[in-house]
Structure formats: structure tokens, C-alpha cells
Amino acid sequence: MDNRIKELILGYDLCNDYIQISCYNQKTQDMDTICYIGEKMMDRIPAVLCRLYSDRSWVCGYEAWKAVNEHRGVLVENFVDALEPEQSITVDGDIYSGAGLVRIFMQESLKLLTKYYPHWAVGQLTVSVEKLGKNTVEALKALSAEMNFDESRLSVINHVSAYEHYALNQKHELWQHDVGLFDYSHRGMTYYHLAISKKRMPVTVMATTVPLTEYFDGSEIGQMAPPELDRRFLEVVRQVTANKIISTVYLTGEGFEGNWAKISLKNLCHHRKGFIGSNIFSRGACYYSLLAAGLLEEGSFIALNDDVISKTIYIRGSKKREMMNLELVQAGQIWYDVQAEAFFIPDGMDHVTIHLMDYLSKRERSFQIPLQSFGGDEKRPDKTRYFHIQLCFDDASNCRVSLKDMGFGEFYPASDQAAEHVFDIYDETFDDKEVHEPGRLILTDGRQNMVPYYFGLSGIRVYSLEQLCYYIYHHIYTVSTETFGDGLFYWIEKNLGERALVKRLREAKKNGRTLKEMVRLILMSVDYYSKEEIHQLQKTIEEIEMQNPIETRKVEADNYLRYGRPLEALAVYKKVDLMMEDSEDMVTKEFQGNVYHNMGIAFARLANGEAALACFKKAYERNGSEASRDAWLMMLKILGREEEMLQETNRMILSPDILERINQRFKDAEHSFEAQPVSEMLEKMKDIHSESQWDEICPEVLAWLEKEKGEYRGL
Question: TPR repeats: which residues (predicted)?
Fold first, then answer.
């Protein structure tokens, strides 16, 4: 006996009064109908439940009827109709949701498969319902968790989609022209017409639904005389098929049982093929499962109906230095299946434009979603906003667009700010003119790399090629050929997956290419900076390379100072000072003053006030700048030498406003310090009078000291 678990491809037609199940038979490559096996085999199973009195367990279908007739339990019905309005149903005093009862029924009814396949699991399951609704879809999707299979293996479609997939998976001669279906049940009669268009590839199928309840509302089944039924149906046939070229007509539903349609069928099948079948929707759902499982060729036709998106939705942006349309939603998708996303960086854009193109008419419309609200008052340079856009649908026409600010690495952390917009894709007020954008959207693949590359000099981490380009472009004075080493190459290859780029970089380094060429390889590898911007940066690199050695070393020292490394900065500034003494004719007085000014800042950050004071004084004597003068006077005040500060102020005949400004800056700094937690900690330390008080505050002091030492060391 074969005990291996067999994954089944299933189609399940769920109606309020009955269900039908079809299963793909891999041996015969056809559909098997799963029947209830009793005194006779029946493929239409009543959609009813019975909760047994004895153990509160459930039985379904014919077994439920049998249990109720034997007074062994309570009958539960009409739970499928309770799905969309989210109604509750009372069962012997207990309240159940319609969704919960539907899932119980489906699990019980699927046990019928065990009689055909003793060891089975869901390979792919498609449920067809009369009409899709959000509550219906959510209720049925929850079935996957209860039956312990992946949600991606469960689809929900409407009857029209099931019929479309059934009809177009038959022999080609049966849908050479249009196809029709009459569905007749106790709910009444409905005609579904499939208009087949072969003018474009893939073939387009457009469904039209015609309610016929004014002729047949279902109450006449089993009550009206067959000749009268035949006469009425003949009238309906002539009405709905007039002026249409139809290859095949299908009839389904219990209303067609009894062989009463004689004259009407003869008329209906004149120059047409006709078939009567009871399981068209479950078989169509099974064909959809085959498609979802990858066992049927995808894209052979586009099936459009009321629950299918008939428009292609896209955004336009730049990728690999070419403008392209990035499709987010393809025409032919069922609305609830849409879970689209994209990532982009605006370049000169304060909005994102959503484009909609009708699949049949090719008419395009568009509307804009503003981006100005993101970031609040924060001013960011261009190309430093990174957005995640997501699209889903509330129903067949209302699309929900979500935008989220993802930040730009450590340069501009994510604000977690989000915005949501809901729009009707069939809104005729949208702009139908050609859109001319002032900038572009830079499209990215959205990969989330969690391992950064760390630049030791600046202490900045980058997580993507775009951020690496931004760092190089805006920190070019800190970049040298040594930057392009094995560590960077390894990170680009292993964490970003850019093997081809690393190969080019290694070859360039091996061949002794210049810094300008190495930078160009990086910047051209991703569509972030334009060719004009890259050319401008290369000119800057050429200017740097033309600087004299003293200027080059000053730039190195300035970078150490900029990134909070005053010790390294002073070491280089002292070398610059010696070089200036030996080559005074190579630099200006202003240049010398700027060097001493920066040395003063470095000493001040190391709390060496006297050395900082001397440097600021020398700086002012050489460059005569207000910044150096004010720094010199401020340092006198910080050191408590206010009388000397006043003497120097009078000697330079400075306006009282200048002295007032310096004093105000000092007061502002004091207030700022007092507002920090460390100020409160220092006040507590002044009041320590016992060892226990010290033990209480010691952890806070040690933590602060470690933080300060870390910053001091540039860690």
C-alpha cells in the first residue's frame, strides 16, 4: 500500500446551497469530480452542517441531513451568505461567525478526498464563489492556517473567472468565437457571455453578466410545466444570443435537470456546440489551481471581469541609466491578489506619478501623490530620500497606495513617517495628458543589506551602493586610492552581490588606475549621479591632485578634525606648521591663520585652553578674520581672564555689540549645558557626603565617563 502523501490540485465551488469539488488526476490529465458515496454517488453536496448533541462534533452535507433526520444534532445552513455581511449564526445557544462555520464546513467536506486519496495534502486549492468581497476573501484565506498549509497555495476567484478558465482551457475550436454559459439554480438564472478578442496577444476575454431572474427566479424549478419552461427559455435564448457569433454554449445548474429544454436547446445549438455540465465552476477553479501551481502555461490569455483589474498600473523612473516603466499591477490580476511594491529615490521630484493604462483601449491617465510632507521641517539634500511604495486593493476599483520614508542610512535616519492614499482606478477626472516630469525617480531593487561598510576616518557606515556614492561625492577630500582596498571590495561583493563591479575595480587597482578612474567606476555602477555630476566631481579630484603638499596635508588634518578626531588632527597640523616655516612663500597669511585657527579648535576639544588661546591669537594675527578674533576672546572668557578680554577689546576698539554677542554666546552655552543630564549628575556629586551616596550615583558617572572616553578616542 502506498502511504506517501499526495499533494492534490483542487478546485472547490462554494455556494450557499451546495458545493462541488474537482481534483486534477495526473494519470489521466483530466479532472475528477469528488462525489459523496452513499446509496448513489452525488457530486453536488449540500452546504449544510450539523453539530451533534453527543460530543459537539460536526458533520456536513448528506451526513448532516441524515443526523438531523435522526434527531442527533442541530442543522446549520446559510452560513455562506453570512460571509460578506459578517453575520453571526446561533447554533443551539452558541454564537458562531459565518466565516468560522464556512471554514468548519470546508474542512469537513474536504475529508471526502480521503476516500479517493487516503494520504493527501493541499498542493493548490482554488475556491470559486458567486461574488468576491473583502470579508469573503479574508475568511477563506484564513483556512490555510487552520489546515496547516501555506497561504500562497490558496486562491479565491468568482464564478465568472472560474468559467473563463474552464472555457479557455478546452479545445481551441470551442472558443473560436464567443462563448456563453447559462447558470440556473434556485437563486435564478444568469447568463455569462465571454467576448473573445484575438486582435492582440495574449487573447483577451471580456466577461459580461446578464441576470435573467425576471424570467427564471428559481421558484419555478420542479413546479412549472416543462413546455412552459421550454417556451420561456427559448425566449431568453433568442434575446441574449441575438447578433452574437457564439462558438459554444454551456448549461449548468440543477435547474437544467429533467430534460425539459427540447425546442430551446435545438435553437440554442443551431450552428453552435452545446454542453450540459454540473461542475463547470469547480473544474474552472481546478484549472486556476493548475495555473497557480505552474502546471499550465501562464499568459496564454487575459481574463477580464468585474473582479479583475483591467488596467496596468506603473510608475516611471530611471534604472541602469535608462528611463523605464515599472509595472506594479498587471491587467488581468484579481484585485485581492495585488500586493505590489517598489523602492525609489526622488531626484528633483516633489511627487510620485501613478500611471494607469487601460488594457483594451490603451488610454492612459495619471495622478500625482505629493512627497513634500515627508520629513517635516528637516531640510535634506536632493537624492537623500528613500521611499517604499506599496499597492493593494480594497475591492476591484479602489486601490490603496502606501508610502513610507525609509531614510538614507546614517546620513538621514528613517523617520518612519508614512502616508496612505485611496483612489478609484476608473476615476475619469484623472489627467489624460502626457506627463512631463521636472526630475526623475531613481528605481532601486529594494534589497535590505544589514551589514554596513565602516569608514574609519569619518565613523560613517553605508549600507548600499547609493549611499556609498553619496559618501564619496560629499566626502571626496577624505577619499584616496587607499580607500579602494580589499575590505571595500569584499563588502561590495559579498553583501551587495556586485561581483562584476568588484572584478572591474580589482583590475583597475592592479593596473594602477588613478583615483579619478576608481571613483568613476563606482559612481557609474549605479544610476544615482548623472554623467554631468560625475564629470564635475572628476574636475574637483583634478583640482585636489594639483594642490601643493602643504594644502593636501591641511585637508587631511581638517578631515580628522571634522570627524571628531582632534589628536590625529593636531599631529598632522604640526607637520603642516613645520612645512609652512620651511616654505612660507608657498602659502598665504590667510592660509596660515586658518591652520592655527583649526589647531585652536582641536586643542579646545581636548580641554587644553591655554594652547587653544595661543593658536586663536596667532590665527587672528595672520588672517584677521572675525571668527578667529571671537574665538580668541571667547577662550579668554572661558579661562576666567575677563579683564584681559576687556583690555584686548578696547585695544582693538571693538563695538560693545561684539562683546555683548560673545557674552550672550557664553550664557547660551551655559544654559545648554545645564539642560543636559550630565549637569544634573554633577550637581548630585557636589552633595555626596557618604560612601552609600557615591555607590548610588557611581554607575551613572562611570557610564558617562565611558561615553566621553569613547568619543575622545574616536571609537
Answer: 593-626
